[in-house]
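INFO batch 0412 | record 1 of 1 | parsing
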Amino acid sequence: NTEEDMLVIFECVREQIAHVPSQINGNTKAYVGQLEPGIFQKLPENLEHVYTSFPEKKIRRENVEIGGKSAEQLISEMEAAGINISNYAKSMLKNREFVPGKNPEEATLIRLTVADLGFKSSATTDQIYERAQILGLELCLADTGPNYRLKYRNQPLNEWIYMGMKQITDSDGSPFVFELVRDDGGLWLDALWAGPGIK
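INFO prediction complete | emitting tokens
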């Protein structure tokens, strides 16, 4: 029984599991339901269990410290940690559009798939960003990708994470976002071409 399993895993009673945003209150221990407009502004920050369906569709939320490091510092720290940096990612880091925050701060990252956002197949960059905004999310700051790369060392093999960020344009005017990858060559900070209409 899925409902009974939730009560055990979430260590709560039935009334502490919300299935629609209107059920969320100070006693809510878990949210299992569709991602509706503004949902991420309604969920308490300390809410650990967020699922679009239980148990297979958990939404991961992670905190990462951003800001306070120059591009040179980030490159140096990644190289010291044995993290590979592609030439495209390096050129993004050295681009004048790459402006890290001056002071350290904590950012909460929400990891979503295209399906989590409600798309049945692929979606364009613009469609993804628009849907994320409707759900109450903001784009990541430019230095979030490199800082998350430094933190996220136990990435599973063959996992790709694309950062939802304002694209950084190269010298040819092509827009790129940071990409976090682990392949047979190890951990990478890479770059993905992410034009507005690209799927």
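INFO post-check: The first strand starts at residue 17 and ends at 18.
INFO record closed
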